[in-house]
Design a protein that fits this description.
Blueprint lengths: L20 H34 L33 H4 L3 H5 L30 E2 H11 L46 E2 L5 E2 L3 E4 L2 H12 L7 E11 L5 E10 L3 E3 L4 E3 L5 H10 L3 E9 L8 H13 L2 E2 L5 E2 L3 E7 L6 E8 L1 H8 L3 E6 L2 E4 L11 E2 L5 E2 L1 E3 L4 E7 L25 H10 L11 H10 L2 H12 L6 H11 L2 H10 L1
Parallel strand pairs: 1-3, 2-16, 4-6, 4-19, 9-12
Antiparallel strand pairs: 5-6, 5-9, 7-8, 10-11, 12-13, 13-19, 14-15, 15-18, 16-17
């Protein structure tokens, strides 16, 4: 019997089961990483191409396009010095800011005017110290609505002159050392940096004077020199309520020079020099000294000398405070090749008071002063130095007040016109031969010919101070010297006998 044919079993096919959510996520990550690798490779290729374009020869980065400059200067339009100088205008400005021309004028008024849009535009923002008047104005703003403008409170009082001496004559007790109270004992001296300065900028308007002094020193660096700076004070628009000292003349008094410093000698011509300066409208605005010590910025002996000079040259401020605006300029060697540079600064009011009241006995080293021990009849104030508490050794860092300095690009407002007459106290004394050499280059009847500071000092000593003052007055008014003065000068240029006869007839 035939068996019934069984149907063939269907061959099972490998059909993938539906994946779970986790597996789907893993698969998606794999695909995304593959695509990401491809994208990163293409990006790298593009970046390499860009880098290759930006690189110059030898694989070095191609230089940026140069900044547009005026007459080869690399400085900002606000700078007032030559291409080799440096000031806060160009020290704090980056190259990118120069490219964006941040100093471009966008206001509709003259360049010497100010408006609310550019009121703070020309000010130097990175100055370490505030101008003194601006500092006082900010104090007044704190009390604007608290009391009348004429009134004062502890918030807006100007800095007063501090005395670190024992106050005599206290009626509360017997004289010291039998009695002492808080009213008569000297205040504690807390060492703090001064936030303001009485002078912001030193401008050497007559660079020939400084160059002559520096050249004289560079002939022998082992011999140090000092000189006084004469000029005037003016407003400085680069700082809020700023003040600048404009230096026109330099006078080197008699001095004993050595490798470690200078000792100033008695100057019999000091009064004559002072009178000539006053006739020209000048005053003593600072002093300059040289140093070859590369180890310190300022030494103890230099700080003490600066404080003494500032105490002597102090004036009364309209606020009632006694201040000094005397600038100190240090000329120093800045390289092994003999290159020289200048630094300008002052010392703080606190330093002036401590030196004036003889609180220091000497120095431990070049940058540390020692507080002296009090005598039996006096009290020395406590010197507090931060967390260290009371100290007997004081560092100089708290006393230094930095100033900026520079020279104008063009001389437009200078009073003095010539600088080639021999300088005083530089070995050889000026004589009649030097006067003849001077007037062989300059005309005697030209008023500008007499606008040489050293020539005027020489004539004041040779003739008299009144004749020199008449020459100053006529030269400033652009008038020819009067006939009598010219006759005296002609007699000096002639024979001595003619000069004696002329002087006797006057």
């Amino acid at each position: 019997v035939a068996q019934p044919v069984k149907p063939k079993e269907e061959v099972k096919k490998d059909v993938a089961k539906p994946e779970t959510k986790k597996e789907l996520k893993k698969e998606g990550k794999r695909e995304s990483t593959k695509e990401g690798k491809k994208d990163s490779k293409t990006k790298q290729k593009k970046e390499v191409k860009k880098d290759a374009k930006s690189l110059g020869k030898g694989g070095k980065e191609a230089p940026k396009p140069p900044i547009e400059e005026k007459k080869g200067s690399k400085l900002t339009p606000a700078c007032a010095h030559g291409p080799l100088g440096r000031c806060l205008h160009c020290a704090s400005v980056t190259e990118d800011e120069l490219r964006e021309n941040v100093f471009a004028e966008k206001c509709d008024h003259p360049s010497n005017a100010k408006c609310p849009k550019c009121m703070n535009k020309g000010f130097i923002q990175d100055a370490k110290h505030q101008s003194f008047d601006h500092y006082l104005n900010e104090l007044k703003l704190k009390c604007k609505d608290l009391h009348p403008p004429d009134a004062k409170c502890h918030n807006c009082l100007p800095p007063t002159q501090i005395s670190y001496k024992l106050k005599p004559g206290c009626k509360e007790h017997a004289p010291f050392p039998k009695g002492l109270c808080t009213k008569c004992m000297p205040p504690t001296a807390n060492l703090n940096r001064q936030h303001y300065r009485h002078l912001d900028y030193v401008q050497f308007i007559n660079q020939e004077e400084i160059s002559s002094f520096m050249n004289y020193w560079s002939s022998d660096f082992a011999v140090q020199h000092m000189a006084y700076l004469y000029g005037y004070y003016a407003k400085d628009s680069n700082y809020p309520d700023g003040v600048r000292a404009v230096v026109e003349a330099l006078y080197q008094p008699p001095q004993k020079s050595g490798i470690e410093g200078v000792v100033e000698l008695v100057d019999k011509d000091e009064k004559c020099v002072q009178q000539i300066a006053e006739a020209l409208g000048f005053s003593r605005v600072g002093w300059i000294f040289t140093s070859i010590d590369p180890d310190v910025y300022l030494s103890c002996s230099e700080v003490l000398k600066i404080a003494e000079l500032q105490n002597v040259n102090s004036v009364l401020h309209p606020s009632g405070a006694k201040i000094s605006k005397l600038a100190s300029v240090k000329a120093k060697v800045i390289s092994d090749k003999g290159e020289t540079g200048l630094e300008a600064f002052m010392v703080s009011d606190q330093c002036q008071a401590l030196v004036r009241d003889r609180i220091f006995a000497g120095q431990k080293d070049k940058q540390t002063l020692i507080v002296r021990k009090p005598a039996a009849s006096e009290v020395i104030p406590s010197i507090i130095y931060g967390k260290a508490g009371q100290v007997t050794e004081v560092p100089l860092d708290f006393f230094v007040v930095n100033l900026s300095h520079g020279a104008p690009k063009e001389k437009k407002f200078n009073t003095l016109q010539f600088f080639d007459f021999p300088k005083e106290n530089r070995g050889k004394l000026a004589g009649i031969a030097d006067l003849k050499a001077y007037f062989s280059k300059h005309k005697k009847d030209d008023p500008k010919s007499y606008l040489d500071f050293h020539l005027l000092v020489f004539l004041a000593k040779q003739i008299d101070i009144d004749t020199a003052k008449l020459l100053v007055a006529s030269s400033l008014e652009n008038r020819k010297p009067d006939g009598g003065t010219l006759e005296i000068i002609n007699g000096m240029l002639g024979s001595k006998q003619q000069l004696i006869i002329r002087l006797h007839t006057l």
